[in-house]
Amino acid sequence: MGDKGEDNLGFDNSLENNHIPKQKDEKKAEELESKLADIDATKDTEDGSTERQQWSNPIEFLLSCIAMSVGLGNVWRFPFTAYKNGGGAFLIPYLVVLLLIGRPLYFMELSMGQFSSSGSVKVWNMVPLARGVGFGQVIGTASVVSYYCSLIAIALHYLGASFQTRLPWTYCHPDLAQETEQCKDSAFAPAHGNETIHSNISIVGPAEQYFTRGVLREIPDISGGIGMPGLELSLCLLGCWVLLFLTLWKGVASSGKVAYFTAIFPYVVLITLLVRGLTLPGSMKGVLFYLTPKWEELGNLSVWYAAVTQSFFSLSTGFGALVTYSSYNKFNHNSYRDALIISVADTLTSLLAGFVIFSILGNLAEELGVEINDVVSSGPGLAFISYPTALAKFDYLPQLFSVLFFLMLITLGLGSATGLTSGIIAIICDLKPEWNKTKVTGCVCVVLFLVGLCYTTPGGQAILTLVDHFGGTFVIFILALSEVVAVSWIYGLPRFIRDIKFMINITLGIYWKFCLMGFIPVCLSSILIYVIYKNDPITYQGLDFPPMAIYAGWSLAGVALLQIPLWALWECYKCGGIRKALRPNSEWGPSDKSMRDQWHHQSLELTRL
To answer: Do 415 and 71 contact (CB within 8 A), yes or no?
Structure first.
């Protein structure tokens, strides 16, 4: 890859063609030259190699990966997944999975993108038969980012509500009352037991009432339809996609700068909430529920399945976005170090978010007089019930802390959504380099905004659960398994390790070989077979989904997974047989011509030996 001086080759003529007036001072010229250097179109260097847009600074890549990986998957999805799977019963499998599956896959994806300077479709020049994995990841990623942005929209709604004199989730609203529910302010909650007037009436806190009845207007049973999009949430969703477009329209030149804020600010708010949460009465009860392992659950493969899929969400592995991000690195960038830093930061953030959530749940359990696992309904809305409850406990300026928290949640969501959406955009621009990237970015944002409107309906959270199960969990699980098999067993792990050695001069040891060659394929295959065999019914708020919704979910999964055999057939036809489709094609390798020549020479020498 070219050094910094080479990055400006080919731009002198551009500057002349733009007729920069000579009387302009040097500062103006430098600013224009910098803008021209940030264009997203692929450029040809003098040696004929293709030069891909790169991060302005290695720190921007690191912070962008942290912002994408350390995001809603940690602060939103991890707590409700841990709560759903028994707290401490989930924690041990999750940590084991991160060590033996998450971290190796993370580094593998970074290495694939950086070595080839390719997005998640073109990277499969290494194994053309597996190109469908990249296209399947587009569908899985689009499914996830569509509902990620709906969560950011809810956070935007809460951010606006935080400026009210009295936070609306701190008191019961008579106009939101339901016949089957009784809202009780926590300060006046029963001291013993979950008291009800009638056996079919449940007690809810004001935060849960405001979220389900005030914000979502929720209907858990969607058998009669999902309803029409809500105006307020739809406008918030529009605002989210406008923010995303402004972040993405210049590619990594703009998103890299935003990452300085999105990666660092959330930790300040989370630590503040943790300190407050641990000082609340009953908080330790929740912490103990979170930390106490249930050894009998270690044999439950459903818990391991949840741990694996959560690690994919936490680290953003299996989506293809990491391949895209790393493709903007310089060829010899130390991605090994970055993978270690990011995986550790991701794990610690999930644990931190867990402590915050479960300390609050412990306090709610004591005030409502119920057990921890009966405090609130487990589901995507858990974070929007527990976190606001903690914010209401601040004695001084709860509005200020509320604004800071939801601003944090928005930045976390934008960090994750930026990485996932940029992966989709990069694939389209890789396939159609002649298309204007700004227009592609705008079209992608508009399409995903329209898709996301379904989540702003009263049945939106049920749809979110369905899409998360099929498009974001099941699909990504199979694609990640296909990815690691293609790299380790078809391309060949020894060859892949040699490529990494050539790229960053680091030799992977037995840990990496054991995980990538043996443990990950066997483990993921075993869990997948178990989950398919068991086939647990999907429910939301204890209600079964109607058959039509299940068919729609399987259709989504089917469209994504059919990309693998369809593109495999196409590649076999194009390459002239399955044997050739299993081998790297002529486009595989470093994008820089000098590096490619060295790599080919090394490969020939090893072949002779």
So the answer is: yes
Tens digit of each residue's pLDDT (9 = 90 or more) over 495-521: 999 999 999 998 999 999 999 999 999
Contact criterion met (CB below 8 Å) for 313 and 73: yes
Q: Which residue has the tokens 């929007």?
A: 384
Terminal CA-to-CA distance of the chain, rounded, Å? 28
Nearest to 202 by CA among 180, 223, 220, 185: 180
Cα 334 from Cα 313, distance rounded (Å): 24
Percent of the chain residues topping a pLDDT of 90: 27
Q: Which is nearest to 146 in space by CA: 341, 383, 417, 405?
A: 417
For tokens 């610690």, what's the residue? 348
> Which residues lie across from 202 on neighbouring strands?
181
Comparing 2-16, 254-268, 334-348, 477-491, the range with the smallest average pLDDT is 2-16
Tens-place pLDDT, residues 24-38 = 444 444 443 444 334
H/E element, 544: strand 543-544
CA dihedral 349, 340, 302, 382 (to 10 degrees): 20
Q: Helices 437-452 and 398-431 meet at what angle, rounded to 10?
A: 120
How far apart (Å, rounded) are the C-alpha atoms in residues 151 and 18?
43
Phi-psi region of 117 (alpha: psi -120 to 50; beta: other; left: phi over 0): left
Q: What is the pLDDT of residue 262?
A: 61
Name the strand (E) or helix (H) holding 72: helix 72-72
